[in-house]
Specification:
The protein is mainly alpha-helical. 77% of the residues lie in helices and 0% in strands.
Length: 118
């Protein structure tokens, strides 16, 4: 979460004068999802408590992967205006990260469903 704050502050203060409105919006989207899924990681850790639930472990890994692929690719793509050499195919990675996020949330829901069925 500290990294999300630092990256957000860097975007708001360091990059804002150098990015166009679209690139800044992409950066803000990356940071927003970074924050939400940083909180989700804490949620999974709290839910795990002293047990090691398999669905929650997988959910945690999916959130980490989603942070890297979704937020990471958007952070990089938002800098394309400053670094034109960034390949356009990076945009194809973003939806994969979104799928990982979705998978993580579905597994949390399945964990609760399974827990309530026991």
């Amino acid at each position: 979460m500290a990294l999300a704050v630092m990256i957000g502050a860097f975007g708001a203060h360091g990059l804002k004068p150098h990015l166009d409105a679209y690139s800044l919006d992409v950066y803000k989207t990356a940071n927003f999802y970074h924050f939400i899924h940083g909180v989700a990681l804490f949620l999974v850790l709290i839910l795990q408590g002293k047990t090691s639930a398999k669905l929650l472990n997988i959910s945690y890994a999916l959130f980490i992967g989603g942070l890297i692929l979704f937020s990471g690719s958007l952070y990089v793509l938002s800098l394309k205006i400053l670094f034109p050499g960034i390949p356009g195919w990076m945009g194809a990675i973003t939806p994969l990260g979104g799928l990982l996020f979705i998978g993580g949330w579905v597994l949390i829901a399945l964990h609760f469903f399974k827990k309530n069925m026991d």
